[in-house]
Write a structure and sequence with these properties.
Largest sheet: 9 strands, antiparallel
Helix content: 25-40%
Strand content: 25-35%
Number of helices: 5
Number of domains: 1
Structural class: alpha+beta
Radius of gyration: 18 Å
Distance between the termini: 49 Å
Shape: globular
Oligomer: single chain
Number of strands: 9
Length: about 210
């Protein structure tokens, strides 16, 4: 029987990821990379946005395994709002790894409706590509923009985030990283919610460098 090339590539990729994960846990567990500043100091005022802290329960934090986090609701003077979350991990070698929103949000009753990528041209001239995720609960819809950020990289793909984690563990003895997520309610439609979320990302992104290690 002729081998299926696609299936073969899938098995090879899976084997490499498993081997990398084993190597990751076999290396010294001593490194922990702290933040430049605690995330509680992330600005409450960003451009025209004003933030309000939204604490997360201890049970949820234990499951998430984050070293530090910020979770806020930001609103502007136009009636728009976004949820903003950054979860940081000093090390991902002890079983505490970044949880993909694709796995966490359905657990909150939200159903995934669509998933794509969005290129955002930042005010600095840099362009970043993030996940553009549409979720629904009943008649409610939300736009979720999220990405993985570590050592100056912005990565949308869970697969490539995992690959970089393994490479950095081997070559730099580092497994620190963060999940950054922006959620905008789509009461005025998906395109408007996406525009609001993208505008917030442009305001928030420059501040991240003051907190997340390069």
């Amino acid at each position: 029987m002729r081998n299926d090339p696609v299936r073969k590539r899938i098995w090879i990729t899976a084997a490499l990821l498993v081997a990398g994960a084993l190597a990751l846990h076999g290396i010294s567990h001593g490194e922990r990379i702290p933040l430049h500043k605690i995330l509680a100091d992330f600005p409450l005022t960003l451009g025209g946005w004003q933030g309000q802290d939204m604490p997360i329960s201890d049970d949820v934090l234990r499951v998430a395994g984050v070293s530090d986090y910020v979770n806020r609701l930001y609103t502007d003077g136009q009636g728009d709002s976004v949820g903003f979350y950054v979860g940081y991990y000093e090390s991902q070698r002890t079983g505490d790894t970044i949880h993909s929103p694709k796995h966490c949000l359905p657990g909150g009753g939200w159903t995934p409706l669509d998933s794509s990528r969005l290129k955002i041209n930042l005010n600095s001239g840099r362009a970043v590509t993030v996940n553009d995720y549409i979720i629904g609960k009943g008649l409610d819809r939300q736009v979720v923009l999220y990405w993985y950020q570590s050592q100056g990289r912005v990565v949308a793909s869970e697969y490539w985030a995992r690959c970089w984690l393994i490479v950095d563990a081997i070559t730099r003895d580092r497994t620190d990283g963060a999940l950054v997520r922006v959620i905008a309610p789509a009461s005025s439609g998906i395109p408007q919610a996406r525009t609001v979320a993208e505008a917030f990302v442009k305001d928030a992104f420059p501040e991240l460098k003051h907190f997340l290690p390069d």
